[in-house]
Amino acid sequence: MKQGCTIALDAMGGDHGPEVVVPSAVRYLAANPYVDIILVGDEPRIDAILGKASRERLRIRHTTQEVAMDELPSKALRGKKDSSMRVAIDLVKEGEAGACVSAGNTGALMATARFVLKTLPYVDRPAICTAVPSMHGHTHMLDLGANVDCSAEHLFQFAVMGSELVSAVEGIERPRVGLLNIGQEEIKGNEQVKQAHELLSKSNLNYVGYVEGDGIFVEDIDVVATDGFVGNVALKCSEGVAKFIRHTLTGQFKRTWYTRLSALAALPILKSFRRTVDPRRYNGASLLGLRGIVVKSHGGADEVAFENAIYIAEKEIHANIPQRIGEQVGQHLGREQYRETA
Amino acid sequence: MKQGCTIALDAMGGDHGPEVVVPSAVRYLAANPYVDIILVGDEPRIDAILGKASRERLRIRHTTQEVAMDELPSKALRGKKDSSMRVAIDLVKEGEAGACVSAGNTGALMATARFVLKTLPYVDRPAICTAVPSMHGHTHMLDLGANVDCSAEHLFQFAVMGSELVSAVEGIERPRVGLLNIGQEEIKGNEQVKQAHELLSKSNLNYVGYVEGDGIFVEDIDVVATDGFVGNVALKCSEGVAKFIRHTLTGQFKRTWYTRLSALAALPILKSFRRTVDPRRYNGASLLGLRGIVVKSHGGADEVAFENAIYIAEKEIHANIPQRIGEQVGQHLGREQYRETA
After folding, report:
1. ∠ CA(A289), CA(A290), CA(A292), 5° rounding?
2. B293 and B238 share a domain?
3. Given strand A176-180, what is the order of strands in its sheet?
4. Lesser CB count within 10 Å: N end or C end of chain B?
């Protein structure tokens, strides 16, 4: 039998706050009988949105503050100790919740999570990891923006954490791990990447070598490690290209009465296509390397997307991600070989 | 009346060598009566492929060596003085050709072009620039891989060169210039990007500020400057996502007999869509910052794609790109303000 678990939701985070988080919670609870949810935020507002919805396995934890989407992480950390974001993370720290999910300000979420939960031994920096759709299913990519300047050791740690996440959550025994690089010979990559390549080649990860930008989406690879600047640009580029292509395709179908008719005929295909590449199905980025589970939802997430982020949190609870990463990272990073090289 | 010009083609470069370059040249000459072409490479091979095609405005310059696609740039530069790539660049240096086009090894092409042609005054490093399709037409992006580690001044120079290229070739008086960055607050970018932002804000370029990865494809922007690592990943990512989406869409249409029928109905739309996002229409990257015009074609380019690279070279000859960039870069980079900051 599936074990029960409790997930804390930052009800005030994101562009839509409780208007999206509360209905998502209600839907999620209805579909998942072994989950309890704590809605953290302004009780009267949450209460009003809940209305007559079932409150079974649902609690509200009232808070008086909110972290703004553009607030400086340092300010949020110092001045907002009763924010919905902070209290949701505190609940994980105190063991009241197995994980928390927030659609709030990424910088503040990372800074607060790091301060409250602390990083695992051997992990220098936590990283943000998400899955992106690819021709072979999907690829997990990290870091996505938490660390703009990374050393070879950081990149190596990201690779270990990503591999462990995929192994635990997807049940792949030895995930194929790649290192993001550029294609040209000789000028192949910067110093950090070349050194990380050395570390990875000597590790017992299933390291397949360098991957170029297109490889994330077309190659059969499970984990791609890169620094937060490049990872963020790669992720956002993929969103931009997908939007551009959707826009162009829609424009073509609307051009004339004939193309409008063909669009009608092609509707089921286009719908099924949209479902396959629906970014909402990929909503939910994991903050890895912490002593607790924190999942970041896209700020603009709708209910379907936010539910997916809750689902990721639940999967990570069942897979016991922080403990597994702690053990594996310890094994990899505690090894003589790594320490000597690093 | 349009003035005549001469373009040298590295006939041996690329995955397909003369099999693609020679027919492209023949087609290009037929369609463009004011252009002369010099095919540089193995004369007997070129001659055999030319067969009975018209040789009007076409010359062959025989060479005895070839630069391999995976050859080290330093080796190509030292040891291959009679390679088709080197001689095509020499022809530009000697004024026999107004530009050269090569589908060969990017690293070798950049190293050889830099050695033979030299960089313009005030330009520390040449950069590779190409247009990518966007919701508003297209966006020029640079650098795409020539410079993996860039200072703020390098990024600034890329922005000036890109702006001047777009202004001259597209006739846009004050191109909108952006600097590629990541979205999160506080952790917004690395030091180089922040400093380049300062330099650009004080310049008289039409600088619109930071652009995120998706902005390249959805925002109304003419030039995006970034370092060669990030630019290369961004470009390849866009190619990968486009390939993935094409693959998924095609898969959906082939699913059942009904979807196959709808695909038939939607065929004209899909064709017109493919034309709009056809990467071949964007083939041809400019090596900017040199005292001569060098255009790099994709190694795997077919005839249509290679013709587009020749077209870009012709446009740059008519726009007198190196001289214009030289003047503008001098104006921008010779300014007191820039020198003081830098």
Report:
1. 130
2. no
3. A58-62, A35-41, A5-10, A99-102, A293-296, A285-288, A127-134, A137-142, A223-225, A176-180, A206-211
4. N
Distance CA B152, CA A212 (A): 25
Residue A186 CA to its chain's centroid (Å): 34
Q: Is residue B190 within 8 Å of A149, Cβ to Cβ? A: yes
- Is B229 in the same domain as B255? yes
- pLDDT by residue, tens only, chain A of 342 residues: 467 899 999 999 999 999 999 999 999 999 999 999 999 999 999 999 999 999 999 999 999 999 998 888 889 999 999 999 999 999 999 999 999 999 999 999 999 999 999 999 989 999 999 999 999 899 999 999 888 889 999 999 999 999 999 999 999 999 999 999 997 454 578 889 999 999 999 999 999 999 999 999 999 999 999 999 999 999 999 989 888 888 887 777 777 777 777 777 777 777 777 777 777 888 999 999 999 999 999 999 999 999 999 999 999 999 999 999 998 888 887 664 455 444
Q: Residues 262-321, chain B: which have Cβ within 8 Å of A?
A: 262-263, 265-266, 268-269, 272-273, 276-277
**Which of B238, B287, B281 has its CA nearest to residue B126?**
B287
B338 in a domain, yes or no? no
Angstrom CA distances, A241 to A97, A123, A130, A246, B135, stand at 38, 34, 18, 9, 9
- Are B134 and B270 in a shared domain? yes
Summarize pLDDT for B205-244 with one digit per residue, the tens. Answer: 999 999 999 999 999 999 999 999 999 999 999 989 888 8
> Counting every residue, how long is chain B?
342
Q: Which of residues 94-133 of A touch B (CB under 8 A)?
A: 105-107, 133
B155: domain CATH number?
3.40.718.10
Q: Do B183 and A74 touch (CB under 8 A)?
A: no
A328 within a domain of the structure (yes/no) = no
B225 by DSSP, 3-state: which? strand
Please indicate, yes or no, whether residues B43 and B60 belong to a single structural domain of this protein.
Answer: yes
| Cα radius of gyration (chain A) | 21
- Measured between beta carbons, the chain B residues lying within 8 angstroms of A212 are 232-233, 236
Of B145, B218, B232, the CB nearest to A240: B218
B211 lies in the same domain as B269: yes
Domain annotation covers residue B333: no
Check whether residue B30 and residue B56 sit in a common domain. Answer: yes
Question: In this structure, what token pair is assigned to residue A9?
Answer: 């939701």
Do A203 and A88 share a domain, yes or no?
Answer: no
Q: Write out the residue range of the structural domain in which residue B143 sits.
A: 127-279
Spatial distance between the Cα atoms of A165 and A320, rounded to a whole number of angstroms: 10
Asked if residue B105 lies in contact with residue B120, where contact means CB atoms within 8 angstroms, the answer is: no
Alpha-carbon dihedral angle through residues B54, B56, B62, B63, given to the nearest 10 degrees? -90
Question: Which amino acid makes up residue B316?
Answer: E
B341 in a structural domain: no
Amino acid at B327: E
Answer yes or no: do B178 and B133 share one domain: yes
Determine whether A171 is exposed, middle or buried from the number of CB atoms within 10 Å of its CB (0-12, 13-18, 19+).
Answer: exposed
Report the number of distinct structural domains present in chain B.
2
Q: Nearest C-alpha of chain B: how many angstroms from A274?
A: 9
